What does this fold into?
Amino acid sequence: MKKIGQVTALGLLMITTAALAQSKPVAGEVAEGSLKDKTLTFVSYGGIYQDGQIAALKEFVDKSGVTLLSDGPTEISKLQAQVESGNVTWDVVDTGDFPPYVYCGKLFQKLDLSKIDTSNIPEGQISECSVPAMNYGVVLMYNTEKYKDNPPKSWKDFFDIEKFPGSRALEGSGDLSGGMIEQALLAAGGSVENMTVADIDKAIEKVKSLGPDTIFWKTGADSQQLAESGEADMIAMWTGRAMTAVKNGAAYTPVWQDWLVVMDQMTIPMGVKDPDAAHALINAYVGKSAQETLAKTTSYTPIHKDAKPEVDEVTAAFMTNTPDKLKLGYQQNIKFWVENFEVANEKWNALMAGN
Amino acid sequence: MTARATDSRTAVPAVAADDRRRWFRGQAFWLVAPALLLLVICLGLPLAIVTLRSFSEPQWGWQNYAWFFGTPVNLTVLQRTFTISAWVTLVCLIAGYPYAYLMTAVGPKMRLILILCVLVPFWVSGVVRTLAWVILLQDSGVINSVIRAAGLGSVKLIRTQTGVVIGMAQVLLPFMILPLYSVMKTIDLRLMQAARSLGASPARAFAQVYLPLSLPGVYAGAIIVFILALGFYITPALLGGPRSTMLSTLIQNQVLSLLNWGRGGAMGVVLLIATFVLLALAAPLTRQPHKTGSGR
It folds into this structure.
């Protein structure tokens, strides 16, 4: 009797070890044929970006046997409609900075981090409901012909219209850029520690002080256009667009001091049919070779610390994951912006609507 | 040529209209049933839901409307939406009226070319056309280069209301020209000759004979252009600055960025009602009795 008990215990131990070994995920890996006959729908923002993401997931698809569908563009309102109607067809969704914070537990489920290997993701980028999908930044690009001998060195100079005369352009796509408001506040002599709602007004006043000719670009293409045609002397630009503009011959140079860290997020909506499969997709996505493919095809910065994508010189110059650039990066106060999401949006939108 | 064409038209409508009316009372109703069903499902139902949500979210009540009218920026933008639309309508009318007239005056081959000129841009995506306008209108753009080369300084066109009106007018021009043309081609040009032979100057013949006869087309075109302009989104977003933001941008922001369906819905309902009121005011104009050459 005793012996049988021992054997059973040993057997149990072996089974649990095997199970543990299997469940301990490694970024980028998936068990052969584990998702056969299953279908996952991946949703993102389309264009080169989503193509690159799908390319990055090719290994995952081939190995797991999953059928991967691609849909989009991401719209939180559409996702909300799906979650509310109980018919969620989007399994993994790429979103902007804030949604997984604002709607965590409401539209997005809390991620089970025992199913995703997050050990190689840069620090401070994982939230309860998201892991980063890629990194990029907002940099100050200035016209080198306009500011020959005395170039701007920081956002403070961007907001200083007296020392640095000239036209300015910043993002007006409708999404709230907390980092930009914080920089405006700093330039106005405020402090970002213990920020209050009144500080948003102060920052917005600073933006207004740039004058009526300030350009608020609506799309990435729009900002690139501004640089290539030399319409604005200083432009706050997404790194990807800045890179393309430089490649196309725009005489602009980035200022990396306090570049604003931005990321897209990988999320799983509430009520997906197969959360395990969705987790497996994300775990594969954050793998080294997947991230290298992503970076190579999209020129966005990979979120795997060791990823070394083969890219050309200009693209490499705009990658934000090098140690020196990571040191200069500025991380917005996500907590503050999430807590004050609505009021901040209202104030920013009033500015955008010309009030 | 003109005379014959007009003759064939003069006889037909009266009879056809009677026939149609009789026929419509019978089975013919079912012909519109599919369209009607589509309209109810795809327009009526969503509209009802949006209206409902504007009263029910986050709680039942008038809160979203109180918010709309209590927030100055909304009122500014609402007013601006109507102002810009009115300007666009005016520009379309000024540009479209002579064009439509020309279409009635030329031969069939030339007319085809003129119609193509109106319609070809219509087949190009609105975004592409708007971006083309960016290239034309921007400070370092084509128009300003020409003006500068001529030594006349430069004009601020992009990111101003002027730029938005120009861009929108180009997009909407076909909606003005086509109704105008369809009315103008029924005007019997012999009436102008008659006016002239009775001693009217060309200007007077136009003002007292041709213009009144073409008014139904003017009203139809103006109403279509005005209503379409009210809902414009991409063009003002790309060609305008903050001071030319229109209401759809604000609605989009409420719904897509803030998931505030209640407020977004309320904004939509306000725009809709404001439009209806305006149309109701304009309706008596369009029903003005007119004597055309249709023989009735």
Q: What stands out?
A: Chain A has two domains: 33-135+264-307, 136-262+316-352. The CA atoms of residues 184 and 206 of chain A lie 6 Å apart. Strands of chain A lie at 39-43, 67-71, 92-95, 131-143, 168-171, 215-217, 234-238, 252-267.
